[in-house]
Specification:
This protein is of the alpha/beta class and 372 residues long. Helix content is 51%, strand content 8%. It has a 5-stranded mixed beta sheet, with helices on both faces. A two-stranded antiparallel sheet has the order 3-4. A hairpin with a 2-residue loop joins strand 3 and strand 4. The relative contact order is 0.10.
């Protein structure tokens, strides 16, 4: 008969199911044995508790604590118009912890190998004029004001931005799920992206479940956070924020992606056509045109009423795609290069490389040999 555990409290179990986004009824429905444990009618075995931990994405050791640990995302996550929700989203939290783990390793590795700091970190302040901030970013990325016009597809413009930022020393990761777990989707309403500031290894994460045009704005918005030296994330509606820092980053992104003078030259009143030209979402163009008095209050309101009824997630996919190509975005090419070099130089074990990339064994080898 399997040994049972009597040092797991019902309070910890209730905390674990709430943490995973379940109420008690739904949790018992998903894991029937839980009902007996909650009311102390039966005790769990080690194997049962391990299955419970796996089911509800809780570290096994946490279940033996007397009191729940304090878990918080280490920066503000703005939702909608700078409304910070107090609820805890486990998928976002685990994603942030994963990126932070990569960043912690990178910082040590880059410092140990005397690889220089990223010069755009903390390069501006909130009193820096928007045009000055945008000029600095254009100079760093070597992109002219009309740069996006040269691409037919948003994906091409997006890839250019990624490459330019990586060349400048910014690390990027794209994912729409937690790690490689397709059962743990990252909702756009909970996370569009975030910036983790670090002088040596600044990181930008982008929710790949979002539309490509929205990802363009997210990348530059989070880059502005890196330039300010202020970590933060944003989620929900693609709106301009009332928070001071968020508003500043929105303005930098808007001017970088849709420069006022260029918009005035190409504006026809056709929001969809102009958005395709700049490779951004229609709401960004409409709001920009309205703010520059090129679109009337009435026209903007009518557009917004129609736009607000659209689904928040408009990503269009032609299928599952290549696992390895997807992994390039999830891991990040620049990060993968450093991991590979560290392993080859015996500064990192294969076990740690697997953990950092989320790729294991032959999958890891194939990825590093053929995709980096």
């Amino acid at each position: 008969m399997a040994a049972t555990l009597d040092n797991v409290s019902p309070a910890i179990l209730r905390w674990a199911i709430l943490r995973a986004g379940y109420n008690e009824e739904k949790a018992v429905e998903a894991f029937p044995k839980l009902g007996d444990w909650l009311y102390e009618e039966k005790l769990p075995t080690i194997s049962q508790l391990q299955r419970f931990a796996s089911k509800f994405f809780v570290p096994f050791g946490y279940l033996f604590l007397q009191h729940p640990p304090t878990e918080t995302i280490p920066f503000p996550m703005f939702r909608g118009e700078a409304r910070q929700n107090s609820h805890f989203d486990l998928n976002v939290y685990d994603t942030v912890m994963n990126v932070q783990s990569r960043q912690d390793w990178l910082e040590d590795y880059l410092n140990e190998n005397e690889i220089g700091v990223c010069e755009i970190v903390g390069s501006i302040q909130l009193n820096t004029h928007i045009s000055e901030a945008v000029s600095l970013l254009r100079e760093t990325l070597q992109l002219e004001s009309c740069w996006a016009f040269g691409y037919q597809k948003i994906e091409e413009a997006l890839n250019t931005l990624i490459q330019k930022l990586e060349d400048a020393g910014v690390f990027l990761a794209f994912n729409g799920v937690v790690g490689n777990n397709t059962h743990r989707a990252l909702k756009v309403s909970e996370c569009r992206g975030f910036a983790l500031v670090n002088q040596t290894a600044p990181y930008i994460f982008v929710n790949s479940a979002d539309s490509k045009s929205a990802q363009m704005f997210t990348i530059i918005h989070e880059t502005a956070h890196i330039m300010l030296g202020i970590s933060a994330g944003h989620a929900g509606e693609e709106l301009f924020s009332h928070d001071t820092v968020e508003s500043y980053c929105d303005k930098v992104a808007a001017e970088f992606l849709v420069p006022a003078d260029v918009l005035q030259d190409v504006w026809t009143g056709d929001v969809k056509r102009v958005a395709r030209k700049f490779k951004v979402s229609e709401i960004v163009v409409a709001r920009r045109a309205h703010d520059l008095r090129m679109m009337s209050d009435t026209d903007y309101r009518a557009f917004w009423l129609e736009y607000s009824k659209r689904p928040i997630n408009k990503k269009k996919d032609g299928g599952g795609g290549s696992f390895y190509l997807t992994s390039v975005k999830r891991v990040g090419r620049l990060f993968a290069i450093h991991v590979r070099n560290a392993v080859n130089n015996r500064q990192l074990s294969y076990t740690d490389a697997y953990r950092l990339t989320g790729l294991y064994g032959n999958t890891y080898q194939h990825f590093m040999n053929n995709n980096v």
